[in-house]
Amino acid sequence: MTAVTAGASGAAVLGPVGAAAAAGGPARRRKPKVTVLATGLKFPEGPVALPNGDVLVVEVLRGTLTRVTPDGTTSVVAELGGGPNGAALGPDGRVYVTNNGGLNGFEVGGFTFAGGTPASYVTGSIQVVDLADGSVRTLYTEADGRQLRGPNDLVFDAHGGFYFTDYGKTGASTVDRGRLFYATADGSSIRKLADGMDGPNGIGLSPDGKRLYVSETYTARVWWWEITAPGVVKGGLSLAGSGGGNFLYTAPDYTNFDSLGVEAGGNVCVASMIHAGISVVSPKGQLVEFVDINVGDDPGITNICWGGKHLSTAYITASSTGKLLKVDWPRPGLALR
């Protein structure tokens, strides 16, 4: 099997899958000390570290935005309904949420998973939560006259707008193709940037704001686009790249990619399921290290963010056992806009 990637010159070149990771030699496998910060969460995702030390998570199967204090106490900030999937602090101090509209919860081998389309599904949406009073406003439910199907994750840029992925929805015999969007925080503008993707999930920006990264779940691939202006992206360096994106990296074993975060130095940290942990990938497509996150054999490591002094504490969601984890990280996370 081969993949088409962009070489150093920017030209498309053919190479075996995993070649980018192998080019720098064997990647380090690290097993850090993990602290369980909170338990009993209903498929937590979208962690957001707040300046006061609290961490927000969405609970996909509970339909809430939830606060976790440093001592592990949890409290509901807002009832969102549907399936809140990702969250980010906006330029106005409110929390913006990508809501997939709802997923079915089910168990396999004693672990919880989420997927499919429940009978209660109406639409996907972008919601905004005021942390002061927990009030919720729906900002977007469609773009260009077409329904948002399953918004998954989002990231703000320096201009006050945000990029987000729409994973789509699945049925017994149907699967949506995923899409990529850019929208403004005031609810006045939303537009599609790419489509035809295979389950776009995590999303992040490079430290200089010139690259947009997106991870796909079942292909276990990371794609990137050059950002030429706010909400304007350029790909095309990889033949038939998903959504027109440029290929960066794919897992060398059976892994599902979930959401991602970016370190201050530019590495892309992709939450990896089944082969549970964090795949740390350089901007050149090399696997820097794999961080083994094994807490109760949970295969559902789904997201990462950073907080604490110097942004050196990683907060990681272990969704299939309902936990929020804390890990001392060797490199600082990127300060989000």
TrEMBL record:
<feature type="active site" description="Proton donor/acceptor">
    <location>
        <position position="258"/>
    </location>
</feature>
<feature type="domain" description="SMP-30/Gluconolactonase/LRE-like region">
    <location>
        <begin position="43"/>
        <end position="319"/>
    </location>
</feature>
<protein>
    <submittedName>
        <fullName>SMP-30/gluconolactonase/LRE family protein</fullName>
    </submittedName>
</protein>
<feature type="binding site">
    <location>
        <position position="258"/>
    </location>
    <ligand>
        <name>a divalent metal cation</name>
    </ligand>
</feature>
<dbReference type="Pfam" id="PF08450">
    <property type="entry name" value="SGL"/>
</dbReference>
<keyword id="KW-0862">Zinc</keyword>
<keyword id="KW-0479">Metal-binding</keyword>
<dbReference type="GO" id="GO:0046872">
    <property type="term" value="F:metal ion binding"/>
</dbReference>
<dbReference type="InterPro" id="IPR051262">
    <property type="entry name" value="SMP-30/CGR1_Lactonase"/>
</dbReference>
<feature type="binding site">
    <location>
        <position position="201"/>
    </location>
    <ligand>
        <name>a divalent metal cation</name>
    </ligand>
</feature>
<dbReference type="InterPro" id="IPR005511">
    <property type="entry name" value="SMP-30"/>
</dbReference>
<feature type="binding site">
    <location>
        <position position="152"/>
    </location>
    <ligand>
        <name>substrate</name>
    </ligand>
</feature>
<dbReference type="InterPro" id="IPR013658">
    <property type="entry name" value="SGL"/>
</dbReference>
<dbReference type="InterPro" id="IPR011042">
    <property type="entry name" value="6-blade_b-propeller_TolB-like"/>
</dbReference>
